[in-house]
Amino acid sequence: MKTHPIFGLILKDFYSIRGYLIRQIGLLLVIYLIIGVAMKTMSMLPAMLMLGVTMSLISIFSLDESSRWNAYALTLPITPRDLVISKYLIYYGGMYAVGLLASLFSAAVDTVLFHNGEDAVENLILGVGGGLAILIIYSLVISVDIPLYLKLGIEKSRIPTTLTFLVPFVAIFPTVSYWGPWLANMDWSSVNWPVVILIALASLAVIVLVSCRVSIRIMEQKEY
Amino acid sequence: MEYSVEVQNLSKHFKDFSLQNVSFNVPTGTIVGFIGENGAGKTTTIKSILGLLHTDGGNIRVFGKDPVKDRRLIGEDIGIVMEGSFFSPVLNMREIGSVMAKLHPRWDAALYEDFCKRFSLPAQKPVKDFSRGMRVKAAFATALAHHPRLLILDEATSGLDPVVRSEILDLFLEFIEDENHSILLSSHITSDLEKVADYIVFIHNGQIVFQMEKDTLLERFAVCKCGKGELSRFEQAHILGHRESRFDLEFLVDNAPLVRKAYPELLTEPASIDDIMTFFVKGSDETV
């Protein structure tokens, strides 16, 4: 059966990092399960697993660079556009799959271990909602990072991409101290959450599409 | 004559190096050896042919198509072996085969397996654990399993022992048995080219010095030896370069039949491709 080459590229990336990814996820799972049991909450698990997956996926760029894969790939029936789209699919696909699964898992563990099997729906909504919020933040970060990796290479982009991860976390503290009282007094039940989520996801989709277009342009302009 | 690759007046400028009006072609059904010293412009030319660089001028056609605009179509018909550019070495041959089957519409899994068996390439061992020779064979198995019409090889055989090189050269000759197939082969190992090439293209300082049939080249070029100070005596010799040793003087001519006839007493030996390259590169500054 004839498939689009993008699927071949995704498979290549999966084979490249499969072992490393499994080890990374396994290790983080064990560490944060232990921490979760000690703290009587699994809320940290999805965030840390997503961070772990994102970091593992960076190694795809590193492996591609060291094996000069892009130069080789572009002699196959593949375009720079295919190379870029496959990277976005594996990055976002991997992160969302792990993020959502980890959110469901942590909500289930929370319910069973720390809530005596009660409030399952509420825990699920909180867990998935929290996971989705983290996914949106990571998605924004990655939409900046992928073009940086492609433009500068892994070594040169190390500092700017580290900053893109640090800035949202550092920014949380002054934001919380300034807006905290207002947020605490806000009537959250009046918020139309479906609309808020829809707007957030639509905005994110636009940002990711723009990032993808920029990355394609970078790859088309690049010399190999 | 049909051409698999046509390069006309190709120019590419870097800060410290330029390709200038590079023109040559790869006739269909032939092996073209691409020679030149390190930094002469071979890899830049090959990368331009593959659409990996943005050229500053000229025209390149691969099977009559543009290497950048028609990348996908050309990619179906070419096989590449480039030194140091391949799959991530953590993959094994089975995984590479599965990936290539999704990347190439004409991928022949049975042929790929045949090549892996022929080259004794283990299916499950990561490429990083292969020897240099095995890695090159892996690259060839991958380059050939989609029935390409053109092979482009950039220093593919360098660093290999004579046994592996001989196996690879046999592979070239098998490949070229089909008259629709062609090979552009850039190599420093000129003895290999003498064995298999039909044409030689010589590039020096970013410019093509000549493209010539190998047999004509070896017939026309000769290395002559004479005593020091005798060089001016050979007026009819078209001397391209010379070098002095402690006792005598050697010079390269490109009109060997005439020189042999005009100066039967002169010691002349057929020039190897290595000789021609060395005289051109080292002797070009001292050309008489």
UniProtKB/TrEMBL annotation, chain B:
Domain ABC transporter: 5-230
SUPFAM superfamilies xrefs: P-loop containing nucleoside triphosphate hydrolases
CDD domains: ABC_DR_subfamily_A
KW Amino-acid biosynthesis (keyword) present: no
Keyword terms, alphabetized: ATP-binding, Nucleotide-binding, Transport
PROSITE patterns in the record: ABC_TRANSPORTER_2
Entry keyword annotation includes Nucleotide-binding: yes
A Gene Ontology molecular function term of the record: ATP binding
InterPro entries assigned to the protein according to its UniProt record, in alphabetical order: AAA+_ATPase (IPR003593), ABC_transporter-like_ATP-bd (IPR003439), ABC_Transporter_VariousFunc (IPR051782), P-loop_NTPase (IPR027417)
Name of the protein this chain belongs to: ABC transporter ATP-binding protein
